[in-house]
Each structure stands twice: as structure tokens, then as C-alpha cells.
Amino acid sequence: DPAEAYSAAEFHDDALAAMADITAQGRIPLLVGGTFLYFRALEKGLSSMPAADPAVRARLEAEAREIGWEGMHARLATVDPQAAQRIHANDPQRIQRALEVYALSGRPISELHQQEQSDSLPYRVLKLGLIPADRAVLHEKIQQRFELMLGAGLVDEVRTLYARGDLTSELPAMRAVGYRQVWSFLAGKSGYDEMIGQAIIATRQYAKRQLTWLRNEAGLETWPAGHPQILEGIRKRLEQWLAK
After folding, report:
1. Which pTM was predicted?
2. Ramachandran region, residue 148 (left: φ > 0; alpha: ψ -120 to 50; beta: rest)
3. How far apart are CA 133 and CA 142, in angstroms?
4. Residues 207 and 178: beta-carbon distance below 8 Å
5. According to the model, what pLDDT value does residue 5 have?
6. Residue 222 phi, psi dihedral angles, 5° rounding
7. Vertex 180, ends 142 and 59: CA angle to 5°?
8. In three state form, how does the secondary structure of the chain look?
9. pLDDT in tens, the chain (244 residues)
């Protein structure tokens, strides 16, 4: 449910259970997507982080309403420059979490991340990353994708959530790219065309951050997305890897 919080720690446990079930059936787990922080938590384990504190989060949200998330990002830069460099100024969820961790533990979240648990993933891992060769083509596909989402009923979906009354724009589920912009439109803070433009720009920014993460991902094999021979190339690479 959108009102429920879901963490990397929960994903770590849920994914391991699902992977064990797949393996028990004699099959090979495939992890596909772009949520790289969750994948890193799964692959390398989790450091000991303080649990979320509603009171601290409420205080941080109140402060953000006063000085904006850019101001909160600047505050993060003073207590944890490494995290501030990694977290984008337009990513309120992660800014809030980093400041929350510092408030609760007195230690930077970047320092805690470095103290990874020793229970690494009990699988051999082949990491393949699809990298768009042409930024203009990527931007075009992002626009087409959002237009398809609108055509499939995104606004009506968010309108139903908006009407529930128990959800707010501060919840992680409602901060997701696309949902956040439609929610703002329904709240009368933007026009329809403005909402579309904001969502497309936000998606481009998110894709840019994903590409930055991929460039820094250890052991990743990159492949040119859209290349006519990419499926054949990956098939041969998988055969070679599975034969070891």
C-alpha cells in the first residue's frame, strides 16, 4: 500500500527469500531494474542504521518547509560532505534520511554505509548494464514513456490515491517521479502541460543519476542499449559465464 514504508533492509530480506525459492527450483535469479541502492544493499549487506524516527522526520519536514530542500541539502553538506556529494539536491527523501541518521546517531550516513556487514550475497554475480549511446534518443524515449503512462491512466490512478485522504505528498510513494508531479497538479500547484514538462525533466535527471551510479559500479559490464546485436552478444556472454 502507498501508505506503507519499505526499506532497503526489507528488500534485502525479501529478495534473498525469493532468490532462494528460485534456486530451489533449479533456476537462476535475475535482478532487473534501476534501483541501485537496493541492489547494493542486497549484494554487499547492510550497515547498522538507526530505525526511522517519526518525530525527527516531522521536525526535518517542518524545517524543509521553511528553508527548502536545497537549504536542507546545504545543511547536509556541513555534517556529511560525502553524502551531500552523492545525493542530489532535488532528492528530498534521501536528504531527509541522511539528516535523520545523523540526528539519531551523531555519525554521518556515509560513514555507516562503509561499515558493511560481512554477510555478502551467497551467489556468483554477473552484472550487466545497458548504457544509452545517444542522450537525445534517451530523452525522446523518456518523453514517449511518460506519454504512454498518461494514456494508460496515470492521472486517474493518482487522483484515486489523492482522494483517499490518508496520503500526503511527503510519503515516499508519492515522491516517486511522475506521481509527485501529478499530485502537485491535482493539488492545483501546476497546470496540466506544466506537470508533463516537470515530470519529463525529473525523469531525465533521475536517468542521469542512474548513469552516474552505473559508471561507478564495480564489476559492471556495460552494453550499448539499442545496438542491433545486443541480444546475441548478451546471450553469448551468459553462456560463457554459466559454463564456468
Report:
1. 0.71
2. alpha
3. 14
4. no
5. 81
6. -100, 145
7. 140
8. CCCCCCCHHHHHHHHHHHHHHHHHCCCCCCCCCCCHHHHHHHHHCCCCCCCCCHHHHHHHHHHHHHHHHHHHHHHHHHHCHHHHHHCCCCCHHHHHHHHHHHHHHCCCHHHHHHCCCCCCCCCCCCEEEEEECCHHHHHHHHHHHHHHHHHCCHHHHHHHHHHHCCCCCCCHHHHCCCHHHHHHHHCCCCCHHHHHHHHHHHHHHHHHHHHHHHHCCCCEEEEEECCCCHHHHHHHHHHHHHCC
9. 999 888 888 898 899 999 999 999 999 999 998 788 889 889 887 767 788 888 999 999 999 999 999 999 999 999 999 999 989 888 898 999 999 999 998 889 988 877 655 456 889 999 999 999 889 999 999 999 999 999 999 999 999 999 999 999 988 899 999 999 999 999 999 999 999 999 999 999 999 999 988 888 989 999 998 889 999 999 999 999 999 8
pLDDT at 233: 95
C-alpha cell at 205: 535527471
**Amino acid, single-letter form, for residue 75:** R
Is residue 185 within 8 Å of 195, Cβ to Cβ?
A: yes
Tell me the C-alpha distance between 178 and 201, whole Å.
10
The one-letter amino acid code at 165 reads G
CB-based contact 158:195 (threshold 8 Å): no
Residues in the chain: 244
Strand partners, 131: 224
